[in-house]
Amino acid sequence: MLLERTTTSLLNSTLRSSIRQLQVDLQRAQTEMSTGRHSDAGLVLGASVGRNLDWRSEIERLQTSLKRNAIQADRASVSQAGLEAVKGQADYLMKTLIGARSAQNGGELAKTAGSNSLKGVMDALSTSYAGEFVYSGQTPDSPPIANYEGGAPQSAFDTAFFDEFGFDKTDPFAATITPSQMQTFLQGRFEDLFKDPDWQANWSTSSSENQLARIDAKTQVDADANANEDAFRQVLKASIAAYELGGTAIGQGTFQVVVDAAAAGLAEGLKGLGDIQSRIGFSEQAIDQANARMTAKKSLLESSVTESEGVSEFDAATRINTLMTQLEASYSVTGRISKLSLLNFI
Amino acid sequence: MSGLTSALTQALSGLVVTQSQTAVVSRNITRASDEDYTRKILGLTTDLGGNARAANISRVVESRLSDSVSKSNSAMSGQRVISDALQTLSETIGDVEADGSIAWGIGQLQVLLTDYEASPGSTTAANNAVMAAGRLSQSLNDASAIVTSVRKEADTGIATSVATANKLLADIEDLNKKIVGGGGDSGTIAELMDKRDAAIKSLSAEIGVRTVQRPNNGIAVYADSGVTLFDVNARAITFNPSGTLPANGPGNAVYVDGVQVTGAGAPMALKQGRITSQVEVRDSLATAYQSQLDEVARSLIAQFSEQDQGAPPSLPDATGLFSYSGSPAVPASSTLYPGIASEIRLNPVFDATQGGSAALLRDGGSNGAAYVYNATGVSGFQDRLRELVDGLDADLSFDPSTGLDSTQTVKSFAASSAGWLEQKRSEATRHLETVEASYQRSTDALAKKSGVNIDEEMATLLNLEKSYQASAKVLSTVDQMLATMMEIVR
To answer: Residue A68 in contact with residue A214, Cβ under 8 Å?
Structure first.
């Protein structure tokens, strides 16, 4: 190579191209300072774009899961409240019946208590949340249980009574029913009314399958109860026994058989209700634990995303200052070099 | 006497030479900013009488430097084509934080399906899930359309490049004839050689070239793979525009003098330049991305297909929420179905806005009673929805020809596809910066050799001015001497 030389256009163009680059960098730094993110995240991340897309979609999923869980937890507590109400009714009925067992007007007391309890349980079972019947299982759009008074359930009872004893429940001839006959009735035709398929035929329009609640990506829990649970049937059975049979003309001995049977049923019902409440309680706990896990995971992912895509604003601001200084220096040098020409001195 | 006359003749020839030199200097100065102009120098000789004479105007060039410029120009032009194509393709992804990418769309669908699973009786939740599916199939269609347009553009680009290259070769032939023919003075020939070099540099953007010197300042031009482009006569570069491009297959190839120079099976495949980059975009980059989109579409169609619920099942699986041209048959698993991403649609029987029912998503049965999942017809039926939600988290197997992991969930496949594209774009951008810098360096080196420095020329002009003055002074002095002599003689 000969002696080193340069040309006029090279002198000017070198600075021109470096000014252009500085301006491009300056614009990029400005964007980064105002958004806090890389101006072209895809370029910087390259293959990691896939990872970041996964992170972001996971964050979205966790967020919606947390929202959904809030609703599901709310609904579970509504279920619990209903169960508590039914428990209350069962307790009250039990106490009243025990008191009425040996009382003079025991039948009257039992009838009133039975009626109240029946109404209370029916009300609780009709609880709805966000337009869905909570105790209807997989048919939340229809009420779980038919009305008793004047409805199919009552006619079914009346038919069963007549079939057993040969006369209506209002007949004063009921006084002739012996304790053992009543026992037979209670364990036979009466019991059958609350078993499948009669229970479904006359009373319940609820499905026996519960809707499960998805509390995180992989877990589903059962936080519902449906009206076909045995516990509900026991309480209703006892209420109806007290209401209907307490109102007949049966004798004291027979009445005591009824009270004993009802009390036994209530005891079983109360235990069953307790079990359901624990089960739902476990699910509520599971929801809480899932929420805690998901919240932690979400924070972790969010900070990973910010770290990989973000730009420290301090860095960006410092870079802007440096670039501006460089740009100013380039401008002044360009100006001065362009004035350098032999023509000025000839 | 002879001394004086010879002094006169010398001074006169000096004046003439200085004039010619000034002409060359002024041409240099005028053309100083023309990139393709090479600095000219006037050669000097002495004739038999010992007088200075102007000889040839020559160009200050070094062919190694021009070759280096051509080479880096090919690399840079080719890389620009690839970078631009990748930039367009990455519009299908958008910014990582933005909504709208296909990976995002799949995540959305899963979220809305999960919401529907939580309230299976809700028509709103059902419609939301179906609409998300509609948007997802639309974004697959849109992405496919962008890929197709990138391929078409590349094909058109090849046609344009070939036309440009042919024209440049015709120019080179024309110029070369004039140069070798020798008619005209050295100044004209130098200009023609500058023009020919400029044509070769432009040609290098389309095809990588090598030049070989021939006698009488002639050249021959070869492509970087060795195919002859110009030797005395320009060779024909031919290309038939591809029309409709096959979804997973290459378009038409380029031929030089009947020899295939692009594509598989080309015996002398071009290495650099726009033509070869456009072929790469059309037949390799864009088709690879298309195959990834196609695999996403195929898996979605398969995942949402319905199974015969009979025991035992007797009817084949049939497409459900997503349909395509071959519905109701479900596309073969793990096998690429080229173009399915542009065919995937939301099945209108699920779409409430088109008179359908979104509840089919919960109950099944869009292909008839045998495919109904919700046998009891209850509004709280979750099993089918659960299956669909869990299915989006299941590992599936993909055709390995896509270049991505063949066993992963459809969500992560879509995300890896985005990552694959952005990686290519990132690498292409970095490579472009490198070849641009390399091009800059080689043009600088060439300019340093052949470019005009106005200050140098001005200084030369000052010298010539003085030299002219001196010769003129000699003339007038000799004239005075001769006059004095005449005086004496009279």
So the answer is: yes
What whole-number distance in Å separates Cα of residue B115 and Cα of residue B308? 26
Cβ neighbours of B430 (radius 10 Å): 12
CA distance between the termini of chain B:
16
**Cα B440 to chain center, whole Å?**
18
Partner residue facing A57 (CB), from B33, B104, B451 = B104
- Identify the H or E element spanning B442: helix B410-450
Q: What is residue A220's three-state secondary structure? A: strand
> Which among A313, A213, A250, A132 is positioned nearest to B118, based on CA atoms?
A213
From A6, A54, A341, residue closest to B415, measured CB to CB: A54
For residue A171, give the DSSP letter.
-
Which tens digit of pLDDT belongs to each residue from B151-183?
A: 999 999 999 999 999 999 999 999 999 999 877
pTM of the model: 0.89
B389 in contact with A, Cβ within 8 Å: yes
pLDDT tens digits, B335-365: 999 999 999 999 999 999 999 999 999 999 9
User: Chain B contacts of A61, Cβ < 8 Å?
Assistant: 107, 110-111
Instruction: Return residues 95-114 of B near A (CB < 8 Å).
Output: 95-97, 101, 103-104, 106-108, 110-111, 114
CA distance B403 to chain A (A): 13
CA distance B424 to chain A (A): 7
b/e sequence B241-276, b meaning 16+ C-beta within 10 Å = ebeebebeebbbbbbbeebbbbbeebeebbebbbbb
Query: CA A3 from chain center: how many Å?
Result: 83
Which among B301, B322, B327, B313 has a CA at the least distance from the CA of B371? B313
Q: Which residues, other chains included, contact A141 with Cβ-Cβ below 8 Å and sequence gap of 6+?
A: A132, A133, B121, B379
Nearest to A342 among B90, B449, B455 (CB): B455
Residues in chain A within 8 Å Cβ distance of B411? 54, 57
**B97–A17 C-beta distance less than 8 A:** no
**What are the residues facing B222 on neighbouring strands?**
B210, B228
CB atoms within 10 A of CB B286: 25
Distance from CA of B459 to the nearest CA of A (A): 8
Nearest-by-CA chain B residue for A216? B114
Chain B residues in contact with A207 by the CB 8 A cut-off are: 376, 378, 380
Cβ contact (<8 Å) for A52 and B96? yes
Q: What is the full DSSP assignment across A4-71?
A: ----HHHHHHHHHHHHHHHHHHHHHHHHHHHHSB-TTHHHHHTTHHHHHHHHHHHHHHHHHHHHHHHH
Q: What's the confidence (pLDDT) of residue A123?
A: 93
- In chain B, which residue's Cα lies nearest the Cα of A17? B440
CB atoms within 10 A of CB B435: 19
Q: What is the pLDDT of residue A71?
A: 95
ipTM given for this complex: 0.88
The pLDDT tens digits of the residues spanning A88-140 come to 999 999 999 999 888 888 888 999 999 999 999 999 999 999 889 999 999 99
